[in-house]
Amino acid sequence: MSKKGKVYLVGAGPGDPELITVKGKRLLGRAEVVVYDYLANKKLLAHVPPTAVLIYAGKKGGSTHTHSQTEINQMLVDHALGGKTVVRLKGGDPFIFGRGGEEIEELSAHGVPFEVVPGVTSASAAATYAGVPITHRAFTSSVAFITGHEDPNKKESRIAWDKLATGVGTLVFYMGIKNLPNIVANLIKHGRDPQTPVAVVRWASTPEQRSVVGTLASISEVVRQAGITPPALVVVGEVVSLREVINWYEKRPLFGKKILVTRSREQASELVQSLEDLGADCLEGSTIALAEPPDWAPLDQALDKIATYNWLLFTSPNAVNFFFKRLAALGLDSRRLHGPQIAVVGTATAEALQNYGIKADLLPARFTAEGLAEALLAQGVSGRKILLPRALKAREVLPESLRAAGAEVDIAPVYQNTRPPMADEIRQALERQEVDLITFTSSSTASNLFALLNWPAEELARRLAGVKIAAIGPITAATVEKAGLKVDIQPETHTIPEMVSAIAAYYL
Known about the structure:
Helix content is 34%, strand content 19%. By secondary structure, it is an alpha/beta fold. The chain has four domains: 6-120, Tetrapyrrole methylase, N-terminal domain (Cobalt-precorrin-4 Transmethylase, domain 1); 124-249, Methyltransferase, Cobalt-precorrin-4 Transmethylase, Domain 2 (2-Layer Sandwich); 258-288 and 420-507, Rossmann fold, CATH 3.40.50.10090; 291-418, Rossmann fold (3-Layer(aba) Sandwich). α5 (161-167) crosses α6 (180-189) and α16 runs parallel beside α18. The longest helix is centred in the N-terminal third of the chain and has 13 residues, at 69-81. The protein is elongated and about 90 Å long. Belongs to the precorrin methyltransferase family. One of its GO terms (biological process) is methylation. This is uroporphyrinogen-III C-methyltransferase.
């Protein structure tokens, strides 16, 4: 007997990928097939195994559907009967205007096992992220969720406007933009005060969120003038007046700013998360990829005589991580490093080292290669033997300074920077001048971006004229300026947290 699969209807939440439930995220990690909607954030697909089949079944208002509801139902049945674990990823909550009930009925009719995982519904998220509590003791203790787009095959509306208009304190309409004038007219006709506050929230909980406020009498014109289009929700009620006090999401310092992060994919998460926590919409466009060096022999030979070195120097977290990766591959661990003292270029590198249970002996006052050289020279390096695991290609200022002072320096490449191809969406965003800020965390991130764009100097300056640039330190800034561009933001301390703080301060 063939194995029967199972379908999980998972609520993806309102847009922010972090608002998915813990269970929903866990099920994505087990999925063999994922059928996802237009309103489900595509960042959630990062949790899906690379072997899974991804099927886009988006339904976007005003355009042709990728698949009909009947086709979607059949897909779920077919994949499950084929023995697959299927996740049906739906925006918001599957059972609140998500047609989840229809899909479950079809699964049940074919004897397909299923589970439903609730999600944060767009109504509560839109109100919360717009600074509107949908219930409040001083205003109302009742709320209703209503579709603004009923089944077009219905002969007449099933909405009891006469009861709804004055019988419920807060009204939240899903998919109501197209029919907003009709909604407003029905509410006023059946007794709702034309001066009742109304909020319309587009793309709630995402960096693209946009909110407008008016009254029943004015909101249709406000929405028209603002150019608000679906997907958006309409919140009607006195609680909307609290937005002036409670609006928090749209007041974050980087809200509405599109920031290009050029850091390597392996390292981008900390920077991206910090910027997004402050409201930024981050584009991840890695201009560096990390790989093992072409030859491990220099490091392997150095490790055989590690006790003969006086100093072991690390100039980046990457060097630390690749060094210890090689150590583990050789069946060794940190006990091997009992001979030399260890110096690091800055706090991020020190933290990376600490992850392997080792505390650095020397941390310079200035987090640059020059600063590390100064700190070592102050200790005296004449006649000292120094091992420097680093990138295959790197600036020579550190080894040259130490050798000039009489040190013997062995360089052992532990990783190399390669240049990945540029994603079309990154180039297009820059060409359309949609990017507000570019972050550079090393000279290589800057030089590689310019090389990938391959624009002549005049065109580069013209296309990036309105784009602000943040550089982590003076060496990176010099690379940017050499390309004819201006650095707008540079932290005093050359770390990612300080860089994020400097960016936030710039926009405050």
